[in-house]
Each structure stands twice: as structure tokens, then as C-alpha cells.
Amino acid sequence: MAKSLKNLHDGKGNLLRGRFLRVFRTLEPEQQRSLSILFVAGLLFWSSLASMLPTLPLYIKHAGGTDQQIGIVIGAFAIGLLLFRPWLGRLADQRDRKLVLLIGLAAAAIAPLGYSLTQSIPLLIAIRTFHGLSIAAFTTGFSALVTDLSPPQHRGEIIGYMTLVNPIGVALGPALGGYLQEWAGYTPLFLMAAGLGLVGIVCMLGLKVPPAQSSPRQQGSNDAFWQLLLSPRLRTPALVLFLVGLAFGTLAIFVPLLIQETKINLNPGLFYTAAAIASFSARLIVGPASDRLGRGRFITLSLLLYAFSMFMISTAHDASVFLLAGFLEGAGAGILLPMIIALTADRSHPTNAVACLAGPWQDSIWESRSRVPSWVI
User: Fold this and answer.
1) Which residues have a Cβ under 8 Å from the Cβ of 374 and sit 6 or more positions away?
2) Is there a single domain that holds both residue 290 and residue 359?
3) Residues 206 and 228 in one domain
4) What is the arithmetic mean of pLDDT over 242-256?
5) Could you report the per-residue pLDDT of 199-246, keeping only the tens digit for each?
6) In angstroms, how far is the first alpha carbon of the chain from the final one?
7) Torsion sign, CA atoms 154, 157, 159, 164
8) What is the 8-class DSSP label of residue 359?
9) CA–CA separation, 212 vs 299, rounded Å?
């Protein structure tokens, strides 16, 4: 049985690699080089960011923070993200996508050094707010550059492959960060996170950027976007995604603390690694299946997986239960996000499909998980 499953997995993996290589070989050499650089930079960025997922709450507690202060510090990430995103979007459109991406990598390299230099809660809130700039800038620049570099006939497929940097980086980062913190302490962990961002900057210096195809922004575009988001066809997917994000925000902050308090011998980073592996696997399966069977049943399945995962975590007293809960939560996320994006596209008119799919869905789970209000705590 195990051999059959391995052969099935190998067959799917070979098919995926074959399809990717066929598409990749149709590109010009300069496009191949640029996309390869972007992929490596993406892995470095997400690994840096995710390496602190299981460790930063523990560091804030080590610094003397209460549970409420831990939630406030982690949630400050979203303040920086929301403050800087409109400006960065305009900068990417009107000036330089590469510059915006470099701003994101620079913030990812600088913020961990700030964490290592202070244990003051107010200063940690300020640094965490600055850290939010990283994801606002990087995801904006990354998405725009990948789109610019992808030929229209293969754009969707290439974007799909390139966005795998997120689950891969989120699989590697937490395990790496958790083990390094256990073995060497917090300072080496923060230095490693900063170093990953710095290496990403060095990689990006060799990237040649195609001319940006900017589009003029109209004065009322923000108002029009919110009207679109709150329209009957989109408000339900938006609400579902927001509520799931809030649930995972609580989970992301307090799972490391819960594992520590229950005295279970488990690296908290492995919880997030299990989730990322499941998310990666689910994304490869549900897309084609949902085209045949519809989006709704898969969204329902993802919500059931989330609910069951949360129940398991609330009653877990064993490492294997935590890991299984992480796997189920990751499967839920891996199903939910692509289905919400597909459902949004299905419900959008051709004239506003890009507006509907831009920014908010790109990293909405990450934003929401960083935005846990104090009343949840």
C-alpha cells in the first residue's frame, strides 16, 4: 500500500515537473533568469518571515509581556501593512516594481535586528508595525513583476507555480526558526531571519525589470473598490476569509505558548511546517476538481477542516495530535484560499476581475492572522 501511494505521489510529481518545464522552456532566456531570481527571492523572504511565526510570541513572553501584550505586538504587523500598501501600490505602478520589492526585503532584513536589540513592549510594537511594511511591499512588487514577466498565454499557470514560494517558505521557515531558537537562542534566530532578507536583496540586484505597464489611477478608485468588495456577489467570500483569518490569528499567536505550557516535547515550528505541507498538497488537487464539482462544496470542506483542527488543538495533550491538527488546518487553508479566489473570479465581471482579485486576496490570510484584536485575548 505504501509503495502504491509512493508511486502515485511520484507520478503526480513527475507530471507537475514536466508541465512546469514545458512552460518554462517556452520563455525567453532573460525571462527564465528573471523568474528564477524572483522564485529564490520569494523563498528567502517567506522563510525569513515564517521563521518567527513559532518564536516571536515566546520571545515577547520571555521579555515579560502578558498574553494581551503578545496579541497587541503581533497584531501591530497589520497596522504597517495597511498604512503602507496604498502608497506602495502607486509606487509600483508609477515608478519601479523592483524598488518596491527591494523595500520589502529591506524591511524583512532590518526588523529582526530591531527585535534582538530591545525587550521593551512599546518598542516591539513599533518594530512590528515597521515589519508589516515588508509584506505590503514584497507581495505588491512580486505579483506585479511575475505578471509583467509572464506571457499572456501562460500567465495563470506561471503565476500559480511562482506563488508556491509561499507554502514552501512557510514550510521551511518555522521548523528552521524553532530548531535554531532551541539550539542557540533568540539572537542567532533574529540574525538568521535578517540574513535571509539580506541574501534576497543581493539576489534581486541582478534582476532586469521589463518596463512597467502602468495604468492611470482614478481619484475614486478606493471608494469604487470598497463598493465592489461589499457588493452582494463578493461580500460573502470576503466575510468567510476574514473570519477564518481571525480564527487563525488567534491560533498563530497562541499555539507556541500552548505547546510550551502543556510541556509537550515538540518544536512549535513543526506545527506550521505540517500545515504548510498540507496546504501545498491541497492546492495541487482542489483546483482541477473544483472546475468539475463546483467551489461551494470545497469551501464547506475547508471550513469543516478548520473547525475540527481548532477542536483538536483545544483538547491536545500529545505531539502527534498537535501535528495532525496543524496538517488539517493547513489543508483547510490550502483548499479555502484558491477556492475563494476562483469563486471571486467566477462572480466578477470581465471589466473588474483584476480589481476583485488584486491585493486583498493575495495575502489576506496572512494579514488577518496578524490582526487579532485584544478582545479575542
Assistant:
1) 68, 71, 72
2) yes
3) no
4) 71
5) 999 988 888 776 555 444 444 455 555 565 566 666 777 777 777 777
6) 45
7) negative
8) G
9) 36
